[in-house]
Amino acid sequence: MRIMIVGQNWLATEVLAQCQQLEGVEVLAVYAPSVSDRLAANAFSSGIPVHTGQRLKPENIPAGTGAEMPSIGQSTWANASPAVACTG
Questions:
Q1: What angle do CA 78, 84, 72 make, to 5 degrees?
Q2: How confident is the model over 24-65, as pLDDT tens digits?
Q3: Which terminus of the chain is less hemmed in, N or C, by CB atoms within 10 Å?
Q4: What is the rounded CA–CA span in Å between residue 70 and residue 50?
Q5: In sequence order, what are the residues at sequence separation of 6 or more whose Cβ sits closer than 8 angstroms to the Cβ of residue 2?
Q6: 77: which DSSP letter?
């Protein structure tokens, strides 16, 4: 499964660590609020692409996650895809 992790701080960092240990799971990218966030720092050190900002944009979603959407607008990720791990 190819995923993108969207989150911040401790919880998202733990999700990243767990996903990296799972066989058959490839973390394609992470999305964090800033480059100084713990998730961003851990992803950088693992060679995983990092996207930052307060709003996730469609162009930041890597192909192959199953979450490619032509327009996200103001919607939530509740109906996006189980291939996207959203953390607080």
A1: 55
A2: 999 999 999 999 999 999 999 999 999 998 887 778 788 877
A3: C
A4: 21
A5: 25, 26, 28, 62, 64, 65, 66, 83
A6: G
